[in-house]
Design a protein that fits this description.
The complex is a heterodimer of chains A (342) and B (332). Chain A has 13 helices and seven strands. Chain A has 342 residues and is of the alpha/beta class. Chain A has one domain: Rossmann fold (3-Layer(aba) Sandwich). A five-stranded parallel beta sheet of chain A has the order 1-2-3-7-6, with helices on both faces. A two-stranded antiparallel sheet of chain A has the order 4-5. Chain B contains twelve helices and 14 strands. A seven-stranded mixed beta sheet of chain B has the order 3-2-4-5-7-6-12, sandwiched between helices. Chain B has a five-stranded mixed beta sheet with strand order 9-11-10-13-14, sandwiched between helices. Chain B has a two-stranded antiparallel sheet with strand order 1-8. In chain B, α3 runs parallel beside α4. Chain B is of the alpha/beta class and 332 residues long. Classes of the chains: A alpha/beta (342), B alpha/beta (332). Chains A and B meet through α7 and α8 of A and α3, α4 and α5 of B.
Chain lengths: 342, 332
């Protein structure tokens, strides 16, 4: 540890962005939240396997640095739109895992009172306008939210998360074009995990990098290693600054990988075990971040163990909260279809 | 001496409603293709851009899906967009945002958001614009819980229902028949609303109820005049809203007249007439029926270009007269 600290002091100005920009406490909290995302999804997966919850879910295990890095420069008032693979975004934007688990369990204490489930999880109070079951569905909505921010002069910035699959939807192109012509405070974040369900970007997408599409809409296109927290955060900061200054949108391509299949029914026949193992063993975003924190003397093994334990307790409590919460009444089936008139 | 009631055209009434809404509430703005200096494909927005500026009368690119999504997102975050589709047919390009997003957002999020968006759809045939610019797709959207779908038939209702729509917290789809845009009628000055979800009895009668929508209300009224001369006393119900439907008014009317004719321009099968007929068949009014219910709807074809064919593809006044005679006199 001593050596690491010395290194950190001497090379302070050469440290990666995050280690210059954030305090030790902030960085430790990033690690905690990355663990929270992973353990939440593992907990959800386990609950599903044990038959405690039904339906389907899309896990973002392996993509935690991307969600965290993008959300770091945001305020609570800033807004996001998310995707079917959105649990990480939700937690990164400040959601409580208790209410997320409750939503998975279909309970009235869930964020959507049991009406949305995994694919529509939202936390409007923290600026999460919702995950979306339609690929690219949230992108124009984010542009609309950014239009509101500009017209109402709220100073808010909006992030639109989407996957590589969305970049071949018309909504993506229409939305980027409008954001650019109107110079709206929105940042398009493509989390490219290599596969739209089973179809690789190489087979589905005419450009080598999705960020290359930005040129068509006269906005900066930035490629980051989505598994390195600091790289993602640096790009996010620059894009948020640009958006807040009224200079318009940015497209960030965050290259990452999902360890699990597309959804629960996936047999992984479109990729090799070696490829998956390589990402898990050599490029895991949490391991990479932990190693950096240790290298720069910001945390030790005991500190990491404390975080893991705190997260374990929080996840367990969240699942218990969800189990103990009430289910909606069948009589309330039609609630929320329309606004209840006073 | 009473002043003559002021008359406006249907499109002027809509324009006036939009201006009143924008004057009253800075959150209200208009979006659409060529609605700025061009004034809209049917000149409904007219010169509003000069009065309110291009930020509030916003031209969009030709991007119906994206544009509808922007309107949905703006509505979810505090604005009150009125989105004009250039033709209702182009709803097909935006169905994702209308059906999956606007309609379901409040429900999926457990009531945490509302989507107060108004979408306007110039609809219907009769302009020689052929198959892709003449459809009546209101029943498509009427099938989607979460949306409210209205079809004002008069300038008075066009203004009052649009003002009601802007004040409504949920997504409202307004289908405006293009042939009505130039029709004039009395329109009160200032702000007033016509409730969504309430039908209107346009003419009282004892022998037959005609439930009509949009332009068919006027054809039904014309038919009723002719039929009155023959001693057939027609009640015309202007449905005005297809979701949520005003069942009570229709049921009460059918109980009174014991005969029902549904007239609508959209393709006959699986349409509004089927819904109204089934609703009556399921209601206490069924026992009052003296004759089978009859539907008059559009032909089972796309709208053709040739003007005579085009007319024959949708119900016309003589068709309504013939159907009514058949119903009342048993000549079918």
């Amino acid at each position: 540890m001593a050596t690491a600290r010395k290194l950190a002091d001497e090379q302070q100005t050469n440290l990666p962005f995050a280690y210059r920009h954030y305090s030790q406490e902030q960085l430790k909290d990033v690690l905690r939240k990355m663990y929270l995302i992973r353990r939440f999804e593992e907990g959800a997966e386990d609950s599903y396997m044990r038959g405690l919850i039904h339906g389907t879910m899309h896990l973002s295990i392996g993509q935690e640095a991307s969600a965290m890095g993008i959300c770091m420069p945001l305020t609570e008032q800033d807004q996001i739109t998310s995707t079917h693979r959105g649990h990480g975004h939700c937690i990164a934007k400040g959601a409580d895992v208790k209410r997320m688990f409750a939503e998975f369990f279909g309970k009235t204490t869930g964020y959507c009172k049991g009406r949305g489930g995994s694919m529509h999880i939202a936390d409007v109070s923290m600026g999460n306008l919702g995950a979306n079951g339609i690929v690219a569905g949230g992108i124009p909505i984010a542009v609309g939210a950014a239009l509101s921010a500009k017209r109402m002069k709220t100073g808010k910035v909006v992030i639109s998360f989407f996957g590589d699959g969305a970049n071949n939807e018309g909504a993506f192109h229409e939305a980027l074009n409008m954001a650019a012509i109107w110079k709206l405070p929105v940042i398009f974040v493509c989390e490219n995990n290599g596969y739209g369900m089973s179809t690789s970007t190489a087979r589905s997408t005419a450009v080598k990098n999705i960020a290359d599409r930005a040129a068509a809409y006269s906005m900066p296109g930035v490629i980051v290693n989505g598994n390195i927290f600091s790289e993602v955060a640096e790009a996010a900061h620059a894009a948020v600054e640009r958006a807040r200054a009224g200079e318009g949108p940015t497209l960030i391509e965050s290259k990452t990988y999902r360890y699990r299949g597309h959804s629960k029914s996936d047999r992984n026949r479109y990729r090799t075990k070696e490829e998956i193992d390589d990402w898990i063993s050599n490029r895991d975003p949490i391991a990479l971040f932990e190693n950096e924190l240790k290298e720069f003397g910001l945390i030790d093994d005991k500190g990491i163990e404390d975080i893991r334990e705190a997260v374990r307790v929080e996840i367990e409590a969240g699942i218990e909260f969800a189990k103990a919460s009430p289910s909606p009444e069948a009589a309330d089936l039609e609630q929320f279809v329309y606004t209840e008139m006073a | 001496m009473d002043a003559m009631p002021r008359e406006l055209s249907y499109s002027q009434a809509i324009q006036e409603a939009m201006a009143i809404a924008m004057e009253a509430d800075s959150r209200v703005f208009l979006m659409g293709e060529d609605i700025g200096v061009y004034g809209g494909a049917f000149q409904v927005t007219g010169d509003l851009v000069e009065r309110f500026g291009p930020d509030r009368v916003m031209d969009t690119p030709i991007s119906e899906l994206g544009g509808a999504g922007v309107a949905v997102g703006a509505a979810m975050t505090g604005m009150r967009p009125i989105f004009e589709f250039q033709f209702s047919d182009f709803a097909t390009l935006a169905m994702e945002q209308i059906v999956n997003q606007a309609a379901k957002m409040r429900f999926m999020l457990g009531g945490e958001v509302s989507v107060p968006v108004v979408m306007r759809f110039p609809a219907g045939s009769g302009t020689g614009a052929a198959a892709q610019h003449s459809q009546s797709l209101e029943a498509w959207l009427g099938h989607v819980p979460g949306l409210k779908v209205i079809q004002p038939a008069t300038p008075h209702d066009a203004k009052g229902m649009l003002l009601a729509a802007v004040a409504d917290p949920d997504p409202i789809m307004i289908f405006e028949h293009k042939l009505l845009y130039k029709m004039k009628g009395p329109v009160p000055e200032g702000h007033y609303t016509v409730p969504i979800g309430k039908a209107e009895i346009r003419r009282e009668g004892a022998d037959l109820t005609i439930v009509a929508t949009s332009i068919m209300v006027h054809k039904a009224m014309e038919a009723a005049e002719t039929l009155a001369a023959e001693g057939i006393d027609v009640e015309v119900v202007d449905l005005r809203t297809i979701r949520p439907m005003d069942k009570d008014t229709v049921i009460a009317s059918v109980k009174k007249t014991s005969r029902l004719l549904c007239v609508y321009e959209a393709v006959k099968t699986l349409g509004i007439g089927a819904e109204v007929s089934a609703m009556i068949a399921e209601s206490e009014a069924f026992d009052y029926l003296d004759a089978p219910i009859v539907r008059l709807g559009g032909a089972e074809t796309p709208i053709p270009y040739n003007p005579e064919l085009e007319k024959s593809a949708v119900p016309q006044t003589p068709d309504i007269i013939a159907a009514a005679r058949g119903l009342v006199r048993g000549q079918r």
